[in-house]
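Appendix B. Extra example for self-study. Work through it before the problem class; the solution is given directly after the inputs so you can check yourself.
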Amino acid sequence: MQRALALARKGEGRVEPNPMVGCVIARRGRVIGEGYHRRFGGPHAEVEALTSCVEEPRGATVYVSLEPCRHHGKTPPCTEALIEARVGRVVAAVADPSPLSGGGIRELRKAGIAVEVGVGETEAAEVLAPFLTRVALGRPYVIAKWAQSLDGKLATATGDSKWISGEASRRQVHRLRARMDAILIGSGTALADDPMLTARDVPVRRRAVRVVLDGRLRLSERSQLVVTASTVPTMVFTSKAKVGLSKAGRLARRGVEVAACRTHRGRPVVADCLRRLSRRAVTNLLVEGGPTILTSFLKAGLVDEAWAFVSPKLIGGSDGPGVLAGKGVARVADALIPRTVVTRRWEADTLFRMRLTEVPRS
Ligand SMILES: [Zn+2]
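Solution. Structure tokens for the complete assembly:
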């Protein structure tokens, strides 16, 4: 199963909104075939593995990181291929909670194939977390990223944040962007930094839609986001009232999708925006906002993974913003207890990659 999971990870950024799945076929401890889901619309892992077999898979054991599907989607059901190949046993790590593709285990058992579920489940669930989050919770898997100085500030008192992290960690951010379905900021960051939010100088696995939460529709028509909206998908969530303004019309004519969402005290309700993004098959969302956006996501318990780049620089003073903004943040700080922390170094910067939520299970 370890091998199946390693294979599954290779599909990252290419298979979504499908799950990353890997499959190994073995007989008497010897691998006779293996494969993984390579890209959305392509063959599933089981079919890749069956096709790669160096000998007849009849009677062999199939290790697969997710329950084989039984539905006719872009490709025929994997259960059918496994039954036809007359494999002897199927060992699946995680049961498929999706009403659409799930039910494969029952189908296989009906055909007389022995099935075991739950082997390597914990690790497989982590690999499948983005898929399971969207299917079970109806929202994207959220990664929040920020860069901070050694004294915990995201920017100087004047709002300058560009020089906090080093070249190597900025490159990591571009790699991360290159596998996202959507990248989100608030209007404050859009106005202060005027970012492009595109993945530059790295291989791009998918092109993310750029999303701005902008309850008051403050986004400048001359911003880089708006100017490039005809070539890079760009979306603004604002209140119902603002959607009718002439500014919304002007943004739309430049290629920006202006969408209404629920608001609370003039600010977009994060959970509502996530639901709407999930309906558009957004599986992985990167939040790159400043303190206001980061705090609202953390407060709502809607950050699955946090990437904090810490740079050995001191900003000083009492005015530079930290990660958490506003009132009632002490409660948020208490709630932010990572389940796992992985650290990595790039030049002088250290990345703390933290998993905050449990993988939702059916
Ligand atoms: Zn399948």
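Self-check: The first strand starts at residue 22 and ends at 27. If your reasoning did not lead you there, revisit section 3.
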